[in-house]
Write a structure and sequence with these properties.
The complex is a heterodimer of chains A (394) and B (342). Chain A is of the alpha/beta class. Chain A is built from 12 helices and 13 strands. Classes of the chains: A alpha/beta (394), B mainly beta (342).
Chain lengths: 394, 342
Amino acid sequence: MKLGIRVLIGLGLAVAAICPSVPARAQEDVVAFGDSITEGPFPFDEDDIGGYPKRLQQYLRDAGMTGVVVFNEGKSSEKTAEGLTRIDSVLDKHAKRAAVVVIMEGTNDVSKIAEGLLSIETTVSNLEAIAAKVRARAIDPLYSSIIPRPPWAKRDSANFITYDLVLRLRDLTSTGNRVMAFVYEVFKSMAPSVYDTHYFFKDVVGHPNATGFQLLAEIFGDQILRQDHLAPTASWFFKTGRAGILDPGDEIRGAMHESGTGIRKSDTYFTLNGRSVSTDVEGNQRRVELSYRVTNADLECAGRITMRSEDGAEPPNIRNQIVAEFSVADARRLASDVNGDCRVDGFDLTLLGVAFGARRGEVDYSSFTDITNDGRVDGDDLAKLAKNFGKKSS
Amino acid sequence: MGKFLRLGGVFVYLVGSSLAAAESDYELVQPSASQHGIVLRTARGQARIEGPAGHSSRLSLHPDELLTTVAETRGGWTVAGTRDVDLGRQVVLLRRDFAGTTRFAAPVPQRYPLRLRPILMVRQEDFEGLAWLEGVDLTSLSVRTANRSGNDWGEISIIAPPARGSQTGLTGTVLEDSTWLLVWSAFDGEDDEILWSRGSADRWQKAQRLGHNNRVPDITPAVVAVDGGALLAWSRVVKGHYQVMMSRFDGTDWTPPQDLGPPGSLEPGFVARDSTMLLVYRLAWPRAWAVADLRSSGRVERWSIVAEESGTRPVVRDFSDSSLELIWPGRPARTARWEMVP
């Protein structure tokens, strides 16, 4: 299938309901527009093959789009205000053959935002203006979040600004005919090990390495190919009432975003202590807000809250993410209650088995499974769980 | 922090190197108004003050400190910047005068964890006070000032409380009548607008928007005092591009904004020395830096454009009737010719 058609299917988009019929076009190429993370120069790309764009081209060709060309239009150190002008010459060059322009820019804005020189609102406005120019040439913009900054970055190493920018882009692309690749989300889901495996070793800006560029290529490639491997993402959560304690009458609220086949609202809800609760879910297939008022019946030993959602993929991608853990007044939770359902049973044993052998900092490690809190999940934790097996929390 | 070295065509990364920052890691900062031509060469944790004759003095900084602005003050200079602390940032100040180089405390109390963008308010080499942004986070910043009297700070004034979103790009100058003129950019719920306020000590005008609500971003203002008022330059989106705009403050109000740079011009900054007033700004694509020689009316007399990849602002010096010299960190100085405006 020609990329143009596939892209239009893919971008028209991962959620067919948004744009059910898009006329076919002759264009088939992809333009990768952005800063040095798109440019991907040596030494960051240890293999020196051209960052993610060349890898994306290979990924798409391997998927059957043998004629596709991905043009690298990354420009080192560019900020979005500069990109807003440069995009014109890029479009002049590629407008006849391009079907998609991937827009991944904003990393260099973050440093200026941190210094109080630029506003985050301006960065979002610039990105939207760049996308509008792409759209005006009858080309599909593919928005992208930026990658998280590693802990050693000079600015915003905790990703406060970067995440705020990502959230605003998620909201922006949840409306209208806009599609976003959830790059930040994929990288962040692999943290903290991702910084060792997918970033160039401690460069002070935070560039991907060859492995990171390959991951970027696959994320963009899947978006273009309409291969949805990503579950809806939990964006934010808060509750009313006392800090740290869950009381009857407290309202809990959260938002989830989706980049692919769309959120299935009927399969989206909060769970409290492992049980689903009757959650109000409002929004569209790209963004939903969940709300629920806590009742007496919900409160047992603890107040562990997850946001659970499925998308429209077959089989569905499922997110079941712990977003908060509160204390409940006058209640005590057993340390061996790994899944927080206020009883120690086979589910807890299974979870401990999955994490068995993991040490603090490793992907499989969880503080819930490290019952003895000694930094590793081992026989001591198993013994503690066995001792409490069958007990219920008061 | 580690460093790259290029050895025989191979990049070598030195982990945990204690080497000084590479020259290209530095930024060069010129005072917006200068009699002596000093330059602040600054990187995180390291800074030097350089004089026009080539002498330089190194400043002792904490690794989490970054100096961002410099002014020529009586007997030497004053510099300001910020220091990252747990969950926030503080303003740091140093000065050199006849008594030597000393640190001095920022105005107290700091009500909120984040303080940034310190602006030195200087008139005829007298350090008159400080303006800065302060808030809980970057989208809840207020504009604040404090006057300096001898070695003491006056009361802190809040010139603009937190707005509907970010307030950024604070800049300021001291006018001929000793009042302060502050200019910044603020998000109004739709886009960034240029706001300004004039005052002294605890008497300040209410912050006002410059011009009409135009529904496009107006960002990165720069202001400098001139005879009878001040010149303001900033970037505004015009027909899909940022463009440097100019307006003149006549002591009461502003002239209507006029475009000064071409489409794709942004990040303006003033350099005033002796009787010359220069405006330095970036050209987004093709990448270059432009320098406009201005009259105090804001009219451009001559200009120069230098193709340059680096987004780091250059220092402009040794400007003569026919040419000027631009310097980027870690590079040889480049000479450019003036082009007269017909």
